[in-house]
Amino acid sequence: MLMENLYYFSELQMLDCNMYVLKDENEKLCLIDLGNGLSMKPLINTLEQYDLNPKNISKILITHEHLDHIMGIYPLMEMLKDNPPEIFAHPYTADLLEEGDENKIVPQMFGVDAKTFGINVVPIKNITRINENDELKIGSFDLSVIYTPGHSKGSISFYELNNKILFPGDVVFPQGSFGRYDFPGCSLNDLKKSISRLADLDTIMLCSGHMPPVEKDAKNQIARSKKNINWM
Ligand SMILES: [Zn+2]
Fold first, then answer.
1. What separation in Å is there between the alpha carbon of 66 and the centre of ligand 1?
2. pTM for the whole structure
3. Which residue range is the domain that position 101 belongs to?
């Protein structure tokens, strides 16, 4: 638990991502990112240990379209099919998930296929498209959406205004590091611009897609990332 109503689930070893859970006043849960599919079962077990009911997952926010952040959607939607959560993503990510083309969701360059993760890719319908300036309220958390391309085309960051928490997906990481820019769909220039924007925010806590969260003074670490990427 990072703070009241905010939980962190660290990534597994191989091609996975951190997942974050926000709880609202009605015990409804909002999940930020979904991991690689293999990590969904451990997540569900851990939720139960914390007295969080997985059936109360009512919202899913996706930071970007990479497989280590989205594959968990398939087992999760299967599990919650009687009462499916609302899914929020950038239009690029939403199109990809709605189309459900396995070759695009699990590109061959990663040297894995959906079966590696026990996943059956199917089209996911009714995704709510979000983009720059949209705002989402999850209990006491007020999230503002920032479009931050560069690591991928569909990358968005969530900035929580009341507690100054940043969820940047893979755009920026702790300790002055930053997202890869050598995949298809990446742009080093866009990544520089995106990190520059995130560096301007007054961020206390940094909850990235990989590496353990930074719980205070995160703004300094993002400033280091900005400095480092500008050397590239
Ligand atoms: Zn990524």
1. 5
2. 0.96
3. 6-229
